[in-house]
Amino acid sequence: MPTEQEVLQVLQKVTDPELGRNIVELNMIRDLSIQDGKVAFTLALTIPNCPMREKIKADAQAAVLSLPGVSKVAITLGAMTEEERRAVLGTAVPQLPKINSANKVKRMIAVMSGKGGVGKSSVSALLAAALARRSQKVGILDADITGPSIPKFFGMKPGAVRGGEQGMLPPVSKQGIKVMSINLLVQQEDTPVIWRGPMISGAITQFWTDVLWGKLDFLVVDLPPGTSDAALTVMKNLPINEVILVTTPQQLAALVVRKAVYMLKELNIPVVSVVENMSFYPCPDSGKHHEIFGPSHAAEVAEICGAPVSARIPLIPEIAALGDQGLIEDVIVPEIEALADLLLK
């Protein structure tokens, strides 16, 4: 039968992936009891809905089960009090990752949706191109590790990234936009990236710390859908200045995007603009606007996050056609051009 000290000793090998410290040091182990081969305790998380809670719980269970004489481990998930949480976050949250001293980025904007299929990557690429047309030095960090599409938009192939003494050198588009994506590192465009959360988070952080971005006016970060590990990594490990939220007219899309709004409020990151993509289809014959996906709900999202609806982008087949050809920089969407002007004011 293990002692309490032996249990705590093996639990010191279990770390909180976000805070980078072990769960014993963070005072997460509460109400520890050992009886007849059964070890039970409460795991007090920093926040109740911690995205890494199941991993921490599984790691803790495996660690304790490795001790001789332990036949069962019962872990109850709990949460720290606000006072305990403030104490932990005040001392345990690491500083933002150090980057190459040659990198000087004035503004970092995350493009987020919360939901897939709303054209977030298209908006990211179009916005970067619009800013570049205004003589801005621009880069795009493709944080969608498992579903990257930014290189395709710019006609870039795997193997385009070069290594240098100061870090990875991102390829540059014809407008001078620097691009970094996992699809520039794999062997083939359709090679899947089958990684778990911590590896995805690590890759995103490296795209910020280990890439020679140089001097940029804007770094646009194309986020994957959802509010889990990847999005949290960007918001916590990268110095995001503001967020552009992308939605579509469907009520379901607006519902999911609102989840992203509430996440950003928790993290105190401002939303600068709401963009409604595929807002309507302009009939080429009559000029009439057809709301193919139903009436707009963008105003509801804008009201919640306290930001204006800066662009309602119509459904334009040319965007998809030229994007597939790697010619996204040849597409000029007036609504995106206006958004770029707004960001420069």
Can you characterise this structure?
With 345 residues, the protein is α/β, with parallel strands linked by helices. 33% of the residues lie in helices and 23% in strands. The protein has helices at residues 4-11, 53-65, 82-92, 120-133, 150-153, 197-209, 229-237, 251-267, 298-305, 317-324, 334-343; strands spanning 15-16, 21-22, 29-35, 38-45, 72-79, 104-112, 138-142, 162-164, 167-169, 178-180, 215-222, 242-247, 271-276, 281-282, 289-290, 309-312. The strands form 5 sheets. A 7-stranded parallel sheet has the order 10-7-11-6-12-13-16, sandwiched between helices. Strands 3-4-5 form a 3-stranded mixed sheet, with helices on one face. Strands 1-2 form a two-stranded antiparallel ribbon. A hairpin with a 4-residue loop joins strand 1 (15-16) and strand 2. It is globular and about 80 Å long. Residues 91-95 have low confidence and may be disordered.
